[in-house]
């Protein structure tokens, strides 16, 4: 049975909020490094892709699009300069990679074709 329109709208709204929250967390954490290893960037990209993949597998493509839109919007908003001139994510190579690759990974997950479901097995009659 297909969910009703209000249920789907609520699901999409929750997916967008989850994406926005992860976009903020990833924007803040992507700059973390262990020596020269960009641990924060790698973990943030893996987490972003995993979140969109989980939403896509558990719900539908539109919810994954809402997650991607929320994540991308949060990245754009929090990557800029604040009203007082403060910057959360300083410009640099990790910030550029995060700003480009995160939405790209999310779009690749959303654009991946639907896998065919396994056909139900028929039991042979005796």
Q: What percent of residues are in strands?
A: under 5%
Contiguous helical run count: 4
Quaternary state of the chains: single chain
How far apart, in Å, are the first and last alpha carbons? Answer: 33 Å
Give the SSE string: HHHH
**Strand tally:** 0
Using the CA coordinates, give the radius of gyration: 18 Å
Overall 3D geometry? elongated
Biggest sheet features: none
Helix content: 55-70%
**Structural class computed from helices and strand pairing:** mainly alpha
Low-confidence regions = none
Q: Determine the mean pLDDT.
A: 85
Task: Provide an overview of this structure.
With 126 residues, the protein is an all-alpha fold. It has four helices and no strands. The protein is 66% helix and 0% strand. The protein is elongated, with a radius of gyration of 18 Å. It starts with a helix and ends in a 15-residue tail after the last helix.
